[in-house]
Amino acid sequence: MQFGRSYEEFEVGATYKHWPGKTVTEYDDHLFCLLTMNHHPLHLDVNYATETTQFGKNVVVGNYVYSILLGMSVADVSGKAIANLEVESLRHVAPTFHGDTIYGETTVLDKTESKSKDDRGVVYVETIGYNQDGTIVCIFRRKVMVPKNSYLEARGGEQPGRPVPRPDKNWRGAAD
Known about the structure:
By secondary structure, the chain is of the alpha+beta class. Helices cover 25% and strands 31% of the residues. The protein has one domain (7-152): Thiol Ester Dehydrase, Chain A. It starts with 14 loop residues before the first strand and ends in a 22-residue tail after the last helix. Residues 153-176 are annotated as: Disordered. This is MaoC family dehydratase.
């Protein structure tokens, strides 16, 4: 399974469709709101949302939708990142409701080699999130510093820091 990409693997114009989608439950939304101390009744109070909002039901908090999409993109985009440098823009263009399933895809807009270190570069991407009907709900652009292959090779390859299992009484490994 791929976990992120090196600088050389990104191509301007490429689109990565993140899989699987995530169905947002009321529990997910409420827990995120409580963990982040966003107690707005639009997200937590069914009566309030039913009686006083244009949607007539709770709306999923936008930062949770963004977080889902950002997380979905890690395996395809930033799994090898040295740093997330910037979220240039973030727009919530349609509401997400409990029971909606969010899907995402990321397009590479540009990439530039680092001017100060020759073992990395910056990738500029746009991620869109849409629901089960194809309605786009969230769009954001970000810049990610990613390693070149030389950086990865100098630090242990594809899975740097991964330990080697040691044979013991429960597992003899290659000792047999």
